[in-house]
Structures are given as C-alpha cells and as structure tokens.
Amino acid sequence: MEKDRKLIIAGNWKCNKTVAESLALVADLKRDLGSIKELDVVVCPAFTALDAVSKALSDSVIRLGSQNMGDNGYGAFTGEICAGMLRDLTVRYVILGHSERRQFQQEPDALVARKALAAHNASLLPIVCVGETLAEREAGITHDVVGRQIRGSLAGLTPDQVEATVIAYEPVWAIGTGKTATSAQAQEIHAFIRGVLAQEHGDAVARRVRIQYGGSVKPSNARELMGQPDVDGALVGGASLEAKSFVEIIRNSI
Ligand code: PEP
User: Fold this and answer.
1) Is residue 184 classed as helix, strand or coil in its secondary structure?
2) How far is the CA of 238 from the centre of ligand 1 (A)?
3) Which residue has the higher pLDDT, 43 or 1?
4) Of 215, 217, 197, the residue nearest 207 (C-alpha)
C-alpha cells in the first residue's frame, strides 16, 4: 500500500546472539535484502555486537539501532552507555521505553523523555515504545495508558524532534506471546496515537510521524498489518532472530 510515510521495519534482537552469531545473521540479511530501497530496515543487536555489526553494515543500506541508552552524557555513570558512544559506532536509531525495560527496570515516561531528548541532541533517532498490558486493555483504559505514555515520553521535544521520532505501539499482551493484535485493533490505536500527536504537536507533525506496530509480527500477518493506513512499519522481536522470517516480513510489507 502506498503511503506518504516510508515504512520502517526494525529487528529487536534483545539479549540474544554472540558477536559471531550477530555477524552471521547480518551477512544473511545483506545477501537477501541487497540494496532494498522501498522501506527502511534497521537491526538492533546487543551492545556487545554493535561495533562488529556496524563495520559489517558499512556498505549496506541496513541501518544500525541500539536497544537502549542512558539519559546521561559522558562521565561518572558506571555501567551506562551514552548517546555519543552510540553515534561513534554509526548507530542511527535507539529503542527507548521498551515494555521490558518499563516492566523490569521500572523505566518511567519521564526517563524515556530525557533519553529521547539526549538521543536527538546526538542526532540519534529514537524509537519510543508504548503499549497497554492485558489487564489495562480488559479494564478499558488502553487510551488513557497509551495517551499518557505518548505525552509523557515525548515531553520536552521540539516539533522537529517529535516528527523525527518513531513510535512503536506494542501491546504488552502481544509481545513474545504469539498473540497479535488484529489489524483493526492495531489501526484503531495507531489512529488514536496520531490524534494525540496532532493535539500536542499539530496536524503537520502528526501526519509525518512513523508509527510501527510490534507484538508477534510474523511473515503471515505482516501484509495485513502494514496495509492499515496508520501502520508505518513493524518492530519485530522473535521473528527478527532468523534471516528467513525477518526477510519474509520485509518482503510481505512492500
Ligand atoms: C518486541 O520485543 O519489540 C517484540 C515485538 O517482540 P515479538 O515480536 O517477539 O513479540
């Protein structure tokens, strides 16, 4: 389906793969995707593989993403990785506020917003994740939760920064569970998110923001999800760990 916004499909490898395994996957993706131009493809390996994967992607259109970063700059922040370090490795995108970090590291919206600002200030493009839990959906408060996350996680960004931010709508109940939101459920929340963006940052900005869907995206459901008017790509976990399924998702999205 033709859209004004270029689709962006990103693979979130999470805490998986050694450096050698990461390089093997990248080699397969480069072979299978060639110089694909129809959409943006991003891979997000673990921190430990970023340097090697960066070098392997130097002659590729596939972009490099990180799965997280600190909100701090360089300095006395033991154990943290800052935006400048990622830029140094030619990282282009950074996933922020993934539900696993919101759940296991108790990352609040305000921290996600500070990270998003630090990312933009270092010319990294954040992929800001939002999404409701099953209990929240069943309680009928999905719009409240997602609206609050969008407002809170983008607080303090300029309109240009919001426009360049990618949003990933990832219903928590669909992540790694094999349960995918129906295309109608995804479209409904994507349109809602675009409405919140329009209220907060104006129509022109809202129209340009790319909103990915994430949650058990597979080759078999990618085409229908990507066919929705407000779905502008996918954030893919499990199915991005193998070249075959990730490439099929990409091919089925064009
Ligand atoms: C994710 O972790 O962002 C994700 C969407 O995972 P999965 O595709 O495995 O549900």
Assistant:
1) helix
2) 6
3) 43
4) 197
Does the Cβ of 217 fall within 6 Å of ligand 1? yes
Three-class secondary structure of residue 73 per DSSP: coil
Q: Which atom of ligand 1 is nearest to the CA of 240?
A: 8
* Segments making up each domain of the chain, as ranges: 8-180+189-253
> And the tokens for 157?
């960004």
Q: Does residue 242's CB lie within 6 angstroms of at least one atom of ligand 1?
A: no
Question: Ligand 1 atom 8: the closest Cα is on which residue?
Answer: 237
Atom of ligand 1 nearest to the CA of 234: 5
Task: Place 179 in a pLDDT band, splitting at 50, 70 and 90.
Answer: confident
Question: Cα–Cα distances in Å, from 144 out to 14, 26, 82, 132?
Answer: 28, 39, 31, 9
Which active-site residues does the annotation give?
98, 170
Distance 158 CA to ligand 1 centre (A): 29
The pLDDT tens digits of the residues spanning 93-139 come to 999 999 999 999 999 999 999 999 999 999 999 999 999 999 999 99
CA of 88 to the centre of ligand 1 (A): 27
Q: What is the pLDDT of residues 30-65, one digit of tens each?
A: 999 999 999 999 999 999 999 999 999 999 999 999
**Short-list 12, 60, 4, CA closest to 36:** 60
The domain over range 8-180+189-253 is classified in CATH as 3.20.20.70: yes
